[in-house]
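Shift notes (night). Ran Antibiotic biosynthesis monooxygenase while the centrifuge was going.
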Amino acid sequence: MSDHPIAPVAAHEPPYYAVVFTSVHTEVDSGYGETSERLEELVKDVPGYLGMDHARTPGGLSITVGYFRDLAAIEEWRSDPEHRAAQRNGRAHWYETYTLHVAKVERSHTFQRTEN
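Came back to this:
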């Protein structure tokens, strides 16, 4: 995945939605990085897209959380043709297993340390 600043996506005014994609990759990596970077750019064009957080454990568990204003934004992203093709490729080659959760965020806040 592309380089991201080490900071979580800022809190937004609720309600909004979090799409949590948790996966374990196969040994096949052919084209994954390029596709991931392309999708990260493409999703930014979806009206209602709020941001994305990524994390990967040393053991190989990958977690991506996408934040969306509403269910219509999630549906637009879910049905995007390039995203659909990447999903098919993921099931065929890149993922050993994955889980997808869609959750409504009802409370959200951000803390930022400031220097005094």
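The mean pLDDT is 92. Residues 7 and 113 are 12 Å apart (CA to CA).
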